[in-house]
Amino acid sequence: MGSLGAHAKETVTKAQSTVMHVVDKNGNGKIDAEDFGLTRENLEGAGETVKGVAIAAGHGLKAGSAAMGKAFVEARLELDLKTLKPVFPDTLPFSINDPHAEAAQPSILSIVARDKKRSESEVCRGAVGYYQSAKGYELLNLYEDYVSQSALAFYPAATKGIFLADPYQVGVYIALDEYFDFIRKALVNELEVVAQDLGAKHVRISFKEDKKSLVAQQVQTKAKTKLESMSAEHSASVDEFSSVEIAADVKFSGHDSPVAPPLVYFKNESDIVKLVRMRTSDGSNKIESKTYRFQCNRLFGAKEDDSAQISAILNGIKCTGSASFSQNIQRESRTILEYSIEF
What we know:
This protein has helices spanning about 1-25, 40-45, 50-60, 65-85, 115-120, 145, 180-195, 270-280, 295-300, 305-315, 320-335, and strands spanning about 85, 110, 130-135, 135-145, 155, 160-165, 170-175, 200-210, 225, 230, 240-250, 290-295, 335-340. By secondary structure, it is an alpha+beta fold. It has a 7-stranded mixed sheet. Strands 11-8-13-12 form a 4-stranded antiparallel sheet. Strands 9-10 form a two-stranded antiparallel sheet.
C-alpha cells in the first residue's frame, strides 16, 4: 500500500507538472489570472465570475487544480463576451430574415469584414456581427458575408461602410454618403408620380435654402498713449439670401381620369393626401393649381434624438463622414421643398 501511495503521489505530481507547463504561460511557476489573459486593466467592469477567479488566483491556489482551471476558462469566456460583444441572429434588435417582424430598427448600422480576433474566439462562433461602443451608444456591426443572406436591403450595395435606416421603408438601409441625395430624389420622384397620376399638366419642384449669416468683422485698433490703450470693435452684417435648386420642371399632356397614387414618403402629409382626395373625388369643382411648401428636415425623418445619436456614434468611431452628416442636417433644417402643380 505504501508503494502504491507513493506511485499515485508521483503520478499526480507529474500531471500537475504537465498542467503547469501548458497553462503557466507567463512562466512564474503558478497558475494565475495572467495565464488566462486576465490583467488588472481588463478586469475593470468584469462580472462576478471573473472577479472571483482573480481573487482566488491572488490567494495562491495551487497549480493542477481542475476546478481552478475550469473557473479560469469560464472567466476568460465571460470577459470575451463583454469585450468582443458578439451578436447572434436571435439577439439582433430585429429579425434579420424578416425586418417587418419587429417595429424598431437601428437608425444606424455598419457592414464590416470578419476580424481575426473574433473569428478565432470561442464566444463568437456563429455570430453575425458585434456591437461597438461609441459615445455612450452601441453601433451594430454586421458581417459583410452575412448580410447577403438577410432580408435587409442596402443601397447602393451591401458593401463595407456606414448605413442609415430609410425612415419610410422598414429594412432598407442607405449608405451614409448617399443618404441625403437618396431621400431628396425619392421625394421628387414620388411628387412627379403624384402629378402624373392625378392628371396634372405641369409640375415644378424646388428646394429653397434660406442662408442666414452674420459676418462679424472685428477691426481692432489700439492707440497707445502715455495714459491709456484704446481699442474699438466694428462689426458688419450680411443680409439674408436664398439659394434655389430646381429639382424638377415637367410638363404633361394632362388627363381627366385621375387615380390615387401609392404614397410612401408623403403618406403622412395631410396636404398631399388632401390633394389626392380633391382630384379623385366626384365633385365638379376640381382644383386647378396650387403650391405647397414642406420643411425638409421633417420630410427627412430627422428626429432630434436620432440625429444626435447618429452624430455621436459617427464622432465616437471617428468616421470621416461625421462633419458632412452634421452639415447636411443643418442644411435640411433651413431648406423648404416647394411643390407647384397645375391641372
